[in-house]
Amino acid sequence: MPAGRPSKYKPEYCDMLIQHMSEGLSFESFGGIVDVCKDTLYEWARNHKEFSYAKKTARSKCLLFWERLGKAGTIGLKQIKNKDGSVTDLKGFNAAMWIYNMKCRFREEWHDSLSIDNAEDKPFKLAYDPTKTLVGNTDD
């Protein structure tokens, strides 16, 4: 006989999750909608293929929400109309905070990266002079 209480998982949570995250909300906050903790959500994603797929789809919808919001704010729109007909006011849009949000929320897609090609396969040194820019392969 299996131990523990029965799962609260329901297949209809897949569509609910996609709707929830398409409004820019997080996967973890969906737990507040269905009255479970985030650990349970992650367990459902591991154990139910359809919920795992819904999570991936929902994340893409969440990214789309935030990118549309950023695009609108960056080009100076004062408000945007949502799919449900409601309006989101962008009067206080702050591009720096939006970028910070994107880097924290979508680390895989929104991160700073530095790529160094060391084709010569010799040791690469970096030198930093606060009065100048970053330079590489100094000969000192």
Beta-strand portion reads 5-15%
Order of helices and strands: HHHHEEHEE
- Roughly what is the average pLDDT, rounded to an integer? 85
Number of domains: 1
Radius of gyration: 22 Å
Enumerate the strands of the largest sheet in spatial order, edge to edge or round the barrel: 1-2
- Cα separation of the termini: 71 Å
Helix content: 40-55%
Reported for the largest beta sheet, the result is:
2 strands, antiparallel
Low-confidence blocks of residues: none
How many distinct helices? 5
> Could you give the count of β-strands?
4
**Class from helix and strand fractions:** mainly alpha
Summarize this structure briefly:
With 140 residues, the protein is mainly alpha-helical. The protein has helices spanning 13-22, 30-34, 38-47, 49-74, 95-105; strands at 79-81, 87-89, 126-127, 135-136. It has one domain (13-112).
